[in-house]
Amino acid sequence: MNHKRFLLTIAALVIGATQAHAADPKATIADLDARLAKIGTPRLEGVDKVADKEVPAIFFGQRKINNNFDVVDGVRKTHQATATVFVKSGDEFVRVSTNVLTPEGKRGIGTQLARNAAYDAVTKGQQYCGPIDVLGTAFDACYNPIKDAGGKIIGVSYIGHKK
To answer: Which of 1, 12, 140, 159 is 20 to 30 A from 83 in CA distance terms?
Structure first.
């Protein structure tokens, strides 16, 4: 094998490995959670308007996540994945930061996490990874509960790779 072909083969292997890693839901949710943790400890403070709903304001450190899209958009750019931060509001989880689009092409903020296997898992403090329908589209997804410093579930992080 000549040197040029060898380098092209190595490049193809590296690109293939990178693409395989990029489509790994568990690796992508770990990246989203790490990005959020780097900002600071999660907490609820006050209320905020998201779409047409008044919901608790979720913060990581000093940064309010409601209506702030830099972290979820960063996950889309890095992993070509959808990402959402939900806040717990009563018994529901409401999208307060997302790159998931509605059929009308708008961010799906203010919409609720469906009562599905992911909802059941995160309300018990467990991760859910598997197939899921998000606003009418099939994804390979992962959801993690977000807990405050005292261990109380205050939200959910989500990522999805379109099937």
So the answer is: 12
Tokens of 145: 């509960």
Name residue 53's beta-bridge partners.
50
* Dist CA 78 CA 16 (whole Å): 15
Burial class, 14, CB count within 10 angstroms (exposed 0-12 / middle 13-18 / buried 19+): exposed
Interval 81-105: pLDDT, tens: 999 999 999 999 999 999 998 888 9
pLDDT in tens, 50-66: 999 999 999 999 999 99
* Cβ neighbours of 22 (radius 10 Å): 15
The 3-state DSSP composition of the chain as helix, strand, coil percent (nearest 5) reads: 30, 40, 30
User: How far are the Cα atoms of 14, 19, 44, 90 from residue 5, in angstroms, in the given order?
Assistant: 14, 21, 55, 60
